[in-house]
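User
Class, as today's exercise, I want you to study this protein, comparing sequence with structure tokens, and judge whether sequence predicts the tokens.
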Amino acid sequence: MPPITLNRDAVLNALEAAGRPLQRYDLVMTVFWAAGYDRTTYRTVQDLPDGSLTCVQLIDRLHAEGELIRLPSTKWRQILGTAFDATTIHGQRGYHWFATRDQHTCWTQADHDRAERITAITARLSAANLPPLALRRTGWSDNGALLDADDPEAVYTSLEIVEPHGARVAEVLCTHAPDDEQPADALADAEATADLLVHAPTDLAFLLTLINDEASR
């Protein structure tokens, strides 16, 4: 292979192309692969004939100059959440990972926005203070007669989301007369929507608990 040109852009472009933080030696390999080195021949830094030390020194200089951000995996996981990819070429765990300054700024802002949204969702859920919800289903015939929910003569269905004492929180209405277009699909869609609303408060509370548990690790 011809000598590789190692400069600021080579390192920053390699990280931007990777789209995720990389450990030092993994970043070295990514730079060399981007320069045309064969991935199957040069799989680790030990396979490189020369230039790897120079690349490491360049990475450390860019970090010292503020062009690269170096953080432990725990911090990147806090910033990126489940999007943090801990896959490594060299199998080193617990080491620091590098990203460009622009990547760090972008991801940190996204983390801040995500945290604000989670806070807002938590506040809305707490303010609603909803008890366990249930579904109350009512059907009507074409002439307005009240029918059992599963009566085949029913062409209108009301799916009410109710509190334990019967107070209605929300309602999903559906028309599914035989001459309507795809009446069975219309009723199934309405039932799925109502089921989503019934379980939304407890589902949100469960997901928020998982998010908070992950953030506390």
Summary: The longest strand covers residues 168-175. The mean pLDDT is 89.
